[in-house]
Amino acid sequence: MKQDTITVILKGMWVGGTMTVPGVSGGSMAMIAGIYASLIRAVGTFFTDPVRHGIFLGKFLLGAAAGIVLFSKLITYLLASAVSVPLRFFFLGAVAGGIPMICKRAGINRLRFDLLAWPMAGILAVELLALLPQGLIAPGAAKGLGGLMLQTAGGVLIAVGLVLPGISVSQMLYMLGIYETVIENVSAFHFLPLIPLGIGVVGGSFLTAGLLERWMNRQPGPAYLLILGFMLGSLPELFPGIPTGRELIFSLLAAVIGFFALYLISEKQIQ
Fold first, then answer.
1. SS3 letters for the chain?
2. Does the pTM of the predicted model rise above 0.85?
3. pLDDT of residue 255
4. Which of 26, 40, 18, 83 is nearest to 213 (CA)?
């Protein structure tokens, strides 16, 4: 973990910024940047040397926070502009582009009906989350201790996307129905409503870093297929409807670009 401070900060900006795009995995971006192993080691063994690990994580988080704020401002602006629909199709393409990597990591070489239970379970989990009252987990909507605990639990789910390569944090936010709310709060520097989620993310990262990594190594098939179900189940949140005219052409082009951008990045990570 002896990496130059500026290098760690810049890598943090890259990972944090790209995480704001649905379909882009922060873990995958960290792998590509060559910092993933150091991050997992620092989080998983934090209390063995809290000073050294704390300094390293502090540098990374400083860069990640800057990247998230910068990218969230850009995405918030674009979602409110004339390119909103093509941007959402780009997100859809990006999610689709990550699916081949999920299948490879799951060790799927051919379609088998006995494997369908895991992605179906993931889709069902997303559908059950959708039954929660609208805005219940949204930042600032918490009422009482129960609401705060629910938001913290949502942060633990988000931590899964933060820790594991192949899972998108933004996709988790879409699954919970709070992507745009979180992005708007971050871009406007309204961090107070995000505290319960943030506590869940930090706590979940420490709790799940080692556990999830071991599960993914020991049972990659079920684990990644469940993740695939999460991804597929949250796609309707991304779909803006069928555009018409020139917007349809631009949207389809954006989807293709999103697909190949994530597919090529995923292929680089797997190699």
1. CCCCHHHHHHHHHHHHHHCCCCCCEHHHHHHHHCCHHHHHHHHHCHHHCHHHHHHHHHHHHHHHHHHHHHHHHHHHHHHCCCCHHHHHHHHHHHHHHHHHHHHHHCCCCCCCHHHCHHHHHHHHHHHHHHCCCCCCCCCCCCCHHHHHHHHHHHHHHHHHHHHCCCCEHHHHHHHCCCHHHHHHHHHCCCCHHHHHHHHHHHHHHHHHHHHHHHHHHHCHHHHHHHHHHHHHHCHHHHCCCCCCHHHHHHHHHHHHHHHHHHHHHHHHHHC
2. no
3. 93
4. 40
Decide: 197 and 139 in contact? Cβ < 8 Å. Answer: yes
3-class state of residue 160 by DSSP: helix
What three-state secondary structure class fits 170?
Answer: helix
Spans of the chain, pLDDT less than 70: 1-3, 22-25, 28, 31-32, 34, 109-111, 113-114, 129-130, 132-136, 138, 140-144, 146-147, 161, 164-167, 210, 212-213, 216, 268-271
Q: Looking at residue 248, what is its pLDDT? A: 94
Dihedrals φ, ψ of 188, to 5°? Answer: -95, 5
Cα–Cα dist 36/253, whole Å:
32
